[in-house]
Amino acid sequence: MKIRKALLIIDMQKGSFTDKTPRFDTTGVVKRINALAQKFRVGELPVIFIQHDGSKWKAFVPNTSEWELLDELDVNPNDLILSKTANDAFYNSALEFKLRELEVKDLVITGCATDFCVEATIQSALVKNYNITVVKNGHTTGDRPHLKAEQVIEQYNWMWQNMIPTEGKIEVKDFEEVLMCI
Amino acid sequence: MKIRKALLIIDMQKGSFTDKTPRFDTTGVVKRINALAQKFRVGELPVIFIQHDGSKWKAFVPNTSEWELLDELDVNPNDLILSKTANDAFYNSALEFKLRELEVKDLVITGCATDFCVEATIQSALVKNYNITVVKNGHTTGDRPHLKAEQVIEQYNWMWQNMIPTEGKIEVKDFEEVLMCI
């Protein structure tokens, strides 16, 4: 059986991209995600949007504006949209079941925020033995108390490249390189 | 039943503390870990050392010098020493089973490296619903290509404080505060 690949697009929601919470290179990241998603659809590979539901903490409540996906993201009726409630998109969600159903073992990971939900989901996927490709310039975050957003992104990209493989491996690749290999 | 607390001391092994891989404030971190461990033992609470086995990658091979725990660490015959093979100390290890056996739900986490095994283990513990206390000045790492060790430590301490709780909660506390509450 051919190992199937899926594109994960994590938490690209309006509430994370406000004037008060600017993210590094949002326009570029969205453009790259749209291009990747299009290539996945053409290849009949799953495109999965993860949408955070923060009802418990009265933030990112379903059907509010901050919960909505960014208008600039292309969403196709055949794409999957899955809800999550923790940083890790696998936690108490349908994600693992869906990936098993779709026979996916390879994940291409994009989204926001690098140091929260992207990182937590990558850590979780790795110990679930998925092969992971992080799109180096396909995830973003904001400035932190002691670091600029670019520094955070650099640190996590470097760290992911240096993690110990499980039964799955983890790689960090530039958007162009990922796009070519789908 | 009273919720039991355990102290996790991750990868404080000679191979991670060489002249070529200096770590931030090693002496202070070891001193704090020793003090915490002593308090846990007095309270009849488990002290668990995690020791990385990198045989598969020909590094940190059991019974070599780099695999050994630091000489400066106090290890008691009643302490547990558990082996791991990935960044996440729970991955294919006896840790979860042991914690269940010991009826532990609260983890106090220390060790090395902040951005690798400490982080991966924290992420994993949180989605396993443990309550986590990270000792703010009880973990360490080295300088990274784009950041000083102190900056990495600051970023992760800040990030952990801001994670979304699962059924477990996550806190970052100074050594003195943790010591007082055991």
Task: Please give a structural write-up.
Two copies of one chain form a homodimer. In chain A, 45% of the residues are buried. Chain A has a single domain, classed as Isochorismatase-like (Rossmann fold, 3-Layer(aba) Sandwich), CATH 3.40.50.850. Chain A has a six-stranded parallel sheet with strand order 3-2-1-4-5-6, sandwiched between helices. In chain A, helix 1 links the parallel strand 1 (4-10) and strand 2 (47-52). The first copy, chain A, has helices at residues 26-42, 95-101, 114-127, 149-161, 175-180; strands at 4-10, 47-52, 80-84, 104-112, 131-140, 170-173. Chain A is α/β, with parallel strands linked by helices and 182 residues long. The first copy, chain A, has five helices and six strands, in the order E-H-E-E-H-E-H-E-H-E-H. Helix content of chain A is 31%, strand content 23%. The radius of gyration of chain A is 15 Å and the shape is globular. The A-B interface holds A 54, 57, 85-88, 90-92, 115-116, 119-120, 123-124, 126-127, 144-147, 151-152, 154-155, 158-159, 162-164, 166 and B 54, 57, 85-88, 90-92, 115-116, 119-120, 123-124, 126-127, 144-147, 151-152, 154-155, 158-159, 162-164, 166.
Write down the overall mean pLDDT of chain A. Answer: 96
The CATH homologous superfamily of chain A is termed Isochorismatase-like
- The spatial strand order of the largest sheet of chain A comes to 3-2-1-4-5-6
Please report the first level of CATH classification, the CATH class of chain A. Answer: Alpha Beta
Q: Major beta sheet of chain A, specifics?
A: 6 strands, parallel
Secondary structure: number of strands of chain A: 6
Task: Tell me what the CATH architecture of chain A is.
Answer: 3-Layer(aba) Sandwich
Overall geometry of chain A comes to: globular
- Assembly annotation: homodimer
Question: What radius of gyration of chain A results from the CA coordinates?
Answer: 15 Å
Distance between the termini of chain A: 17 Å
Instruction: Quickly count the domains of chain A.
Output: 1
